[in-house]
Amino acid sequence: MADPTPPTSDVLIGGDASTTLSSNRTALSFERTRMSADRTLMSVVRTALSLIGFGFTISEAFHQLHKSGSLAVGDHSARNFGLALILLGIAMLVMGLVTHSRFSHELTDRRERLYSVQLMRRSVQYRMTPTFITTALLLAIGVAAALSIIIRIAYNS
Fold this sequence. Notes:
The protein is mainly α. It is built from 3 helices and no strands. The chain has one domain.
């Protein structure tokens, strides 16, 4: 026969099994939501990386063609188009980082409110994820690419 004594109170929140199960489900839903926010940031990174990469490639390819004399017309329009793509990628990264950061803070605040009314087992502060750090590094690379083109424009003028 099974032991009729209930589990200890450190396992159950408020001594109620349904509340404990609900708390566990809620905690897991917070984790799924946080991972979903990371996936969204990764999609922003993919798009921004494409924009920055294409922009830099277009700018450099036409610059090299113009420098070698293979291109009879100026490379200003290609350079400006490439720079515009890079700046668009940088803007996407900034917006993605700001949105992700705000969402993470809101998610932490929501979880803290549930913890304060004892509907969650423990308090958790969400930290910067590797995706967030990689996005910030890619932003720095994008800014460096844009600056290299802008400096070349200023130097050649």
